[in-house]
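User: Hi! I have a protein structure encoded as tokens and I'd like to know what sequence might fold into it. I'm fairly new to this, so please keep things simple.
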């Protein structure tokens, strides 16, 4: 549901869009197009309320049914959305966006500057209980509004008439256009007030301003549709009439559905990926994502002990884990994903070469056992017992089961780990409420900068599930917001060093997925976290 220096180089990142280009042959241009695409995802939708979405499935749906000021197109190229143009003041602190007059909601209402003002204020209003407050970092008074110290009306966003939006910043945000292309959607006040608490809980309790509108989601079912929005300002460019979605948690099932022609794309299991690498439909999706363990240090004393957390990290053979999970995943030694860039540097690679605390990310059973013994002695305990929670999809199950075996191999009867795999909505809800011990979770970047990862472990941030806190960490991350060049890199590096040293979280692997995507499918955009179908089309066989 998530923006810093030198983002003009973003098009060259590995967070590249997986757009499939159109065939150039004359025979292809004469081929008939299908009006429907059959797609899949691995987990259910939690909510469609743009102010409350925290899951990747919900975010992917919103990217297709809502439109912000800009869009992130193929190769991370920015293209106009509701805003047809913009300008920035000489001091970089005021952005003015000029909105197109033909943008409309799916109920026929015009999309106006007031819709953006209302949406942003609603999201930051403490009454909304949004988990997205930190997405607005840098906008004037955003932090104070989230903290309840100032009214939402004080937020630095203003409608200047119907079609001009002025945004005031607390400091320069070089990534401003990427920020407003990353989930800062407008909302129709009339619809929000009409549906009240039901808003966003089902397809029918929403209105949409994107290329599609959603139908058929009841709030709990595992299939729904994206239908072409007849009111979309750029509807002529939308080739598909329908994208039919289904949730497939078992990868053998989605492969069978693909092979029987019922899906146009399938996420492959590790075994299937090995077997399908020579298939012309084989497609690699590099994601701006890190899978990691989060520790509830606020509630459990044994997890507050740094030697225990270091021991758990060093008990994990990440190379073997990646092979077990399979696909296109890579070993993680940083919280920031390999796709992010800072000051012109690929940041994860930069950190790996310079971080003296990488030892705590290295597999070493003997040291892990010694560190655990040290931690237990400090705690006055003889053994540990905890529950490791994860999602109920195949990959999460494989990961949690492998971690359980690692802990058993390293610690024997000194650590008793039980595994609980839950529906994602249940798992996320428990984490947000602090009802967990150790959980496997993941974070996908909203934009390709390390700040978009590191901000989530700041003191008091919503995604800092276990409420870990470090003054040194907070200072390093906050200083990186205003610094530039080599100085900014040094602050970001300091932040990663603190995370690694303290094992505030334990990075495991960076996600890369192996898919089969039917060769007849073109124009689907993938930007590191979700698919976008506004320019997609499918040829008939």
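Assistant: Happy to help. Inverse folding works backwards from shape to sequence: for each of the 541 positions I chose a residue that suits the local structure. Here it is:
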């Amino acid at each position: 549901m998530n923006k810093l220096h030198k983002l003009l180089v973003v098009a060259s990142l590995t967070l590249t869009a997986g757009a499939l280009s159109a065939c150039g042959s004359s025979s292809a241009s004469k081929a008939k197009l299908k009006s429907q695409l059959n797609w899949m995802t691995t987990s259910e939708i939690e909510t469609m309320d743009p102010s409350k979405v925290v899951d990747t499935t919900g975010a992917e749906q919103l990217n297709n049914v809502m439109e912000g000021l800009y869009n992130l197109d193929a190769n991370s190229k920015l293209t106009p959305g509701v805003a047809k143009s913009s300008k920035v003041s000489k001091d970089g602190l005021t952005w003015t966006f000029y909105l197109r007059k033909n943008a409309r909601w799916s109920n026929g209402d015009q999309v106006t500057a007031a819709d953006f003002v209302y949406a942003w204020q609603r999201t930051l209003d403490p009454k909304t209980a949004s988990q997205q407050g930190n997405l607005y970092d840098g906008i004037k008074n955003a932090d104070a509004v989230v903290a309840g110290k100032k009214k939402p009306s004080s937020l630095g966003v203003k409608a200047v008439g119907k079609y001009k939006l002025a945004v005031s910043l607390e400091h320069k945000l070089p990534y401003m256009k990427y920020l407003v292309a990353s989930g800062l959607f407008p909302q129709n006040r009339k619809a929000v007030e009409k549906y009240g608490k039901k808003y966003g809980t089902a397809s029918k309790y929403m209105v949409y301003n994107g290329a599609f509108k959603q139908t058929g989601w009841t709030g709990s079912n595992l299939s729904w549709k994206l239908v072409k929005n007849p009111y979309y300002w750029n509807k002529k460019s939308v080739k598909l009439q329908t994208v039919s979605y289904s949730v497939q948690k078992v990868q053998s099932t989605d492969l069978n559905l693909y092979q029987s022609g019922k899906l146009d794309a399938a996420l492959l299991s590790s075994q299937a990926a090995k077997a399908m690498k020579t298939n012309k439909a084989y497609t690699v999706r590099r994601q701006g994502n890190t899978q990691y363990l989060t520790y509830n240090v606020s509630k459990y004393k044994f997890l507050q002990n740094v030697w225990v957390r270091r021991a758990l990290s060093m008990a994990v053979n990440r190379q073997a884990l990646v092979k077990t999970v399979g696909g296109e995943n890579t070993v993680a030694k940083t919280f920031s994903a390999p796709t992010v860039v800072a000051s012109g540097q690929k940041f994860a690679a930069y950190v790996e070469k310079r971080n003296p605390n990488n030892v705590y990310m290295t597999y070493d059973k003997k040291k892990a056992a010694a560190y655990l013994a040290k931690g237990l002695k400090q705690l006055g305990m003889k053994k540990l017992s905890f529950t490791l929670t994860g999602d109920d999809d195949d990959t999460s199950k494989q990961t949690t089961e492998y971690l359980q075996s690692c802990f058993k191999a390293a610690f024997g009867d000194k650590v008793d780990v039980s595994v609980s795999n839950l529906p994602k909505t249940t798992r996320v809800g428990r984490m947000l409420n602090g009802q967990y011990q150790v959980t496997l979770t993941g974070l996908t970047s909203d934009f390709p900068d390390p700040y978009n990862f590191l901000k989530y472990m700041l003191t008091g941030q919503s995604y800092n599930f276990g409420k870990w806190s470090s003054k040194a960490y907070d200072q390093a991350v906050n200083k990186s917001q205003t610094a530039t060049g080599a100085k900014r890199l040094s602050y970001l590096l300091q932040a990663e060093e603190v995370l690694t040293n303290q094992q505030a979280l334990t990075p495991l692997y960076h996600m890369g997925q192996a898919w089969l995507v039917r060769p007849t499918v073109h124009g689907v955009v993938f930007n590191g976290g979700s698919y976008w179908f506004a320019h997609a089309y499918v040829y008939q066989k």
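A useful reference point when you look it over: The two ends are 36 Å apart (CA to CA). Feel free to ask if any position seems puzzling.
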